[in-house]
Amino acid sequence: xxxxxxxxxxxxxxxxxxxxxxxxxxxxxxxxxxxxxxxxxxxxxxxxxxxxxxxxxxxxxxxxxxxxxxxxxxxxxxxxxxxxxxxxxxxxxxxxxxxxxxxxxxxxxxxxxxxxxxxxxxxxxxxxxxxxxxxxxxxxxxxxxxxxxxxxxxxxxxxxxxxxxxxxxxxxxxxxxxxxxxxxxxxxxxxxxxxxxxxxxxxxxxxxxxxxxxxxxxxxxxxxxxxxxxxxxxxxxxxxxxxxxxxxxxxxxxxxxxxxxxxxxxxxxxxxxxxxxxxxxxxxxxxxxxxxxxxxxxxxxxxxxxxxxxxxxxxxxxxxxxxxxxxxxxxxxxxxxxxxxxxxxxxxxxxxxxxxxxxxxxxxxxxxxxxxxxxxxxxxxxxxxxxxxxxxxxxxxxxxxxxxxxxxxxxxxxxxxxxxxxxxxxxxxxxxxxxxxxxxxxxxxxxxxxxxxxxxxxxxxxxxxxxxxxxxxxxxxxxxxxxxxxxxxxxxxxxxxxxxxxxxxxxxxxxxxxxxxxxxxxxxxxxxxxxxxxxxxxxxxxxxxxxxxxxxxxxxxxxxxxxxxxxxxxxxxxxxxxxxxxxxxxxxxxxxxxxxxxxxxxxxxxxxxxxxxxxxxxxxxxxxxxxxxxxxxxxxxxxxxxxxxxxxxxxxxxxxxxxxxxxxxxxxxxxxxxxxxxxxxxxxxxxxxxxxxxxxxxxxxxxxxxxxx
Length: 709
Known about the structure:
With about 700 residues, the protein is α+β, with helices and mostly antiparallel strands.
C-alpha cells in the first residue's frame, strides 16, 4: 500500500481506488512473478499468455480491504485499514483501562428506552421561527452574554446562508435547503467518549440516493469525513461517527425508508462507547431497526476541522436539496436512556481513548469478511465495467490449490508453493543481481517471452531448489553465493576477456559495480563511526531537505538510509544523483549511470563532508597526529587494505599541502569544520582538523570506496 495516493480536491474517489489496486497487482506481478502484468490491464497481453480477465482476477484478490480512494489532507492519520504501533507497557495499560471500562459498563448498564427521553441535557434549540440579519436564534440562549469589555461569548445563533429559505414547518417556521448552502451552528464539537444526541423534524421531497442532513466535519474527501454525520442513502437514514472513513468508523443505517413529503421526527444518539451498538436512530418516537455498516472506531472523531454542526450541505458532497428541517435540538447526553452516563464511566473511557489517540498507526492489509465485487474494466478505465470476475490466477502458470482460500492468503501460498515456476526463480535472480550487479536473467522485471533467456538455467534451478529446501532462508542462500569461487574471483581480468565479455556473462571474473545510493551513504557514515544502527523509529529528514521541510533532528541525521524521509515530490537529491528510483512504481532493477554530479555530491554533500570531517579528526586522534599512521588506518578503514608506497606518498603530500594552506586560511578552515552537526574534538588546531578532513575526503572518494570489487 506504499503507493502514491491522492488528496486533491475534486478527485474521483473510485478512480483512484482502482489505481491503488492496480498498483498492488503490478507490484505483486513484478516482485514475485517477474512479469509485465500491467500490459493486460487494457487488453489481453500481446506477448505473454495473460488475459485481461486474469489481470482483474488478481485485482479481485488485491482489493478486499476497507479503504477509500482519497486520503485525508487535513489530518495526519494514515488511510485505513491501519494498525496501532504500541509497545508492551502501553498494551498492558490499554488492557487494564479496557477491563475497567468493561466493568463500569456492566455496572451502569441500563435498558434502552423505546422512546427518546428528552427532558434534560438540552444545550441548543433552533426553532427557525425568528430570522434577524440572517441569524436564527437559539431558543435556549437568545442573545450573546457579555463577559468583559474585550471578551464576548460566541453568538449562539445559527446562520442561514445562500439560497436557503424559511417556509411553513411542522411547529412553526422551518428551513428549506437549496442543497448548495448550509445552516451553520456554533455547537456540537463532541468527542467520541461523550454521550450526545440530536433531534430534528425532517421532510424529504423525494427518495434521496445520497443527501447530507447534518454533519460536524469538513468536506468529506478533505478529512476522511472525520466527525459525525446523518445522511440519507438510498432513501434510508444513516448515522455515523468517523475517524477515517471507511475503515475507522461506526455506522448504522435504518432498515426502513424515510417517508416522502411527510414530516418525520428523527432522533439520533451516541452513548460514547465507540461501538455501533451505542448508536441509535429513533423515527417518530420509535426505536428504528437498523443494520450495522461499520463497527471499528479506535481514534478520536475531532481534529479534522468543521468543528460545529452544519445542516443541509457539505462541501464536495450532495446536499439536502428541497429538504426541510424544523425544530433542531442538541443534547449533551444519550437520550436513548432515562439515566445519565456514569461520571466514572465517562472518565475511564476518556482515559482509554486518549491513550489510543496518542498511538501512531501504520497501514495494513486486512481482509474484508465479504469480498468486493470485481469486474473486467474496458480499456482499464474505472467507470467502464464489463463482466464480473472472481479471483483467479494465470492459467499458464501452476494451478491454484483447490484447498486454499481465493484471497491474498491463498495467493501467497500459491506463490510460495514448491511447484510454482516463477517465484523462486525471480527471487534468486534478484539476489544474484544484488551481489553480481547483473541477474542470471538480465531483464529482472520481465521473465516473459520478450525478456532475455537465463544465462545458466541449471544454475538458476539449483539456486531456486536450494531456497525452497532451506525453508526460504535468504541469508543462508546469500552466504552460499558469497562463499562460492565465482563470487570470490578477482574483478579484474585480462584485456581480451574484458573486451570479449564486457558484461561478465561468462562469470570469468568477480563482480565490479558502483554501490547503490543508500550503501554509499551508509558506508561513509560507518567508516566515520557515525552510523546509528538503532532499529525502528520515525524517519529523518536529510540535510538537503532541512530548509524545504523540517529541520534535521539533532542526533538523528546519522541513521541508516532506510530511515531517510522520502517525499515523491521532493526526493533526497543525493539519493537521486546515485540513481535511486523515485518510488512511484515497483522497480525490479535500478539503472546505473556515471555523472559529474556524483563526484560533486561525494566532495561537497553535507553528509559526506561531515563524514570526512569526523573520519579525519578521528584518525588524527587515534594516530596522535602521525600522518603515516593516519594514512594506514584510513586505507584499512575505508578500502579494507593497506596503501602501497605511491599511495602513501601522494596522501602524505596532500595532507602536508592542506595543512600549510589552512594554517594561513583560518576562516576557510573554520567554515569547513562547521559543516554538519558533529563536533570537532578538543585539543586539535583548526588547520589540523581541516587538513585531516581533506585527507579523509580522498579516502571516501576513492574508487574502491564506492565501487564493489
